[in-house]
Amino acid sequence: MKLNHHLICVLSVIPVRAEHDDRAEIVTQLLFGEVMTIIDVHEQWLKVRIQHDGYEGWVDDKLVLQIADETFENLSKNTRRLQVTNHIQTPWGLIEVLEGSPIISNEQSFFIDDYYMEWEDGALDIQSDNITDVSFNYMNAPYLWGGRTRYGLDCSGFTQTVFHQLGHYLPRDASQQVQEGREIEFEKQQIGDLAFFISEKTGKIIHVGIILADSMIIHAHGRVRIDQLTTKGIFNRQKQYYSHKLSKIKRI
Question: What are the backbone angles phi and psi of residue 76, rounded to the nearest 5°?
Answer without folding.
Answer: -65, -20
